[in-house]
Amino acid sequence: MKVRNVVLSSALAISFFAGGVTVARAVDPFRHPNLAAAQNFIDQAIGSVSAAQHANEFDMDGHAARAKELLKQAREEVKMAAGAANRNRH
Known about the structure:
By secondary structure, the protein is an all-alpha fold. The protein has helices at residues 2-26, 33-55, 63-88.
């Protein structure tokens, strides 16, 4: 049981780190700090849902997978919002 917790914690930490790398490439935190923060929270939420799936052995009737899909769409929308702000900046 203890080994499982270590593995899950490690997987969660890696997903948070990977999410941070994604945010850095997608939204410039210096130009758009609020959008970058939002994208970071989305990435953390995806990691948390993944951890919940692992802890519950993926038995959530597809709802967790759908939540992750919607979060990924939200992450892309935030990225597009930053792009729109860049284009519309006067």
